[in-house]
Specification:
- By secondary structure, the chain is α+β, with helices and mostly antiparallel strands.
- It has two domains: 2-69, no CATH class; 108-292, Jelly Rolls.
- 25% of the residues lie in helices and 34% in strands.
- Strands 1, 2, 3, 5, 6, 8, 13 and 15 form an eight-stranded antiparallel beta sheet that branches. A five-stranded antiparallel beta sheet has the order 4-7-14-11-12, with no helix packed on it. Strands 9-10 form a two-stranded antiparallel sheet.
- A hairpin with a 7-residue loop joins strand 5 and strand 6.
- The radius of gyration is 28 Å and the shape is elongated.
- It comes from Clitoria ternatea (Butterfly pea).
- Residues 1-26 are annotated as: Disordered.
- This is F-box domain-containing protein.
Length: 293
């Protein structure tokens, strides 16, 4: 009996000693926060957010200002001042600034929308039809703004009929992060609506676009130019028409960008065109535009 008790006591001491040894081993929580933060600087933001859930040390390290400042583009202050305001910017942590800039933010009276891509840090910019200069837009015989759920701005410019069609956009003194960008028009031939819950598109007024092509132009203040022509196609479908590309080689360098679409051959009228948005996005995003708009 005494031997049995002695054996149990010995086993208990052994187990306690083993658990004591295990608990004394270093774990993830023992890594200095400064080391974790330095590691995070080499990771993409989505991975940082996942690792922040590991423990408290990782969570605190993931909030370090220098981590998120390394993820923001050099031109982020320009963008933040434009959509957040200088006072709000001063009161926010860099993580909060990053999170805010990575969601769509309206500016210019709500007629433009901009955000940063979470991984590349490049800009995506959408400009509504109301931010564009459209010849004859104030004359309801030619153009109307019509409400629609198919636009992120909830309305599009619709052309009934006109001889001279010209849509011009300008973006002044805008700072883009370094990268290659594409400018694109989102257009549709025909006027869409819903009947009995189903989408229908009225194409009765669509005419004149198969006679002559539309001319697309793009120019920047640093001398980049693009010119192309294309026939509008696919009545009843929103189609993205590529205007041209431009390259940003230096950060914090304001650019003026001017672009247009025009069909000004006055030998025939044109009609039935919906103008939704003009889009500036990283060139590699062109194939993913349907997910954004």
């Amino acid at each position: 009996m005494g031997a049995s008790v002695s054996s149990v006591a010995a086993n208990k001491d052994e187990n306690e000693g083993g658990s004591s040894n295990i608990s004394s081993r270093p774990g993830l929580g023992d890594i200095p926060e400064s080391c974790i933060s330095s590691l995070f600087m080499n990771l993409d933001p989505p991975d940082i957010c996942k690792l922040a859930r590991v423990n408290r040390a990782f969570h605190r390290a993931s909030s370090a200002d220098f981590v998120w400042e390394s993820k923001l583009p050099p031109s982020y202050k320009f963008l933040a001042n434009k959509v957040l305001g200088q006072e709000n910017l001063a009161a926010m942590t860099k993580k909060e600034v990053y999170a805010k800039l990575c969601i769509p933010n309206r500016f210019d009276g709500g007629n433009k929308e901009v955000w940063l891509d979470k991984c590349s840090g490049q800009v995506c910019l959408f400009m509504s039809s109301k931010s564009l200069k459209i010849t004859g837009i104030d004359d309801r015989r030619y153009w109307n703004y019509i409400p629609t759920e198919e636009s992120r701005f909830n309305s599009v410019a619709y052309l009934q009929q006109m001889w001279w069609v010209e849509v011009v956009g300008e973006l002044e003194e805008f700072e883009f992060p370094v990268g290659r960008y594409s400018l694109i028009f989102k257009l549709q031939l025909g006027k869409a609506s819903k009947r009995l819950g189903r989408r229908v598109c009225d194409v009765d007024q669509v005419h004149g676009w198969d006679i002559k092509p539309v001319r697309f132009q793009l120019s920047t203040s640093d001398g980049q130019h693009s010119l192309s022509e294309c026939y509008l196609r696919g009545p009843g479908k929103w189609i993205y028409y590529h205007v041209g590309d431009f390259v940003v080689e230096k950060p914090n360098e304001p650019k003026n960008i001017k672009f247009s679409l025009a069909q000004i051959d006055c030998t025939h009228t044109k009609g039935g065109l919906c103008v939704d948005t003009a889009i500036i996005c990283p060139t590699e995003f062109k194939q993913r535009l349907n997910k954004f708009s």
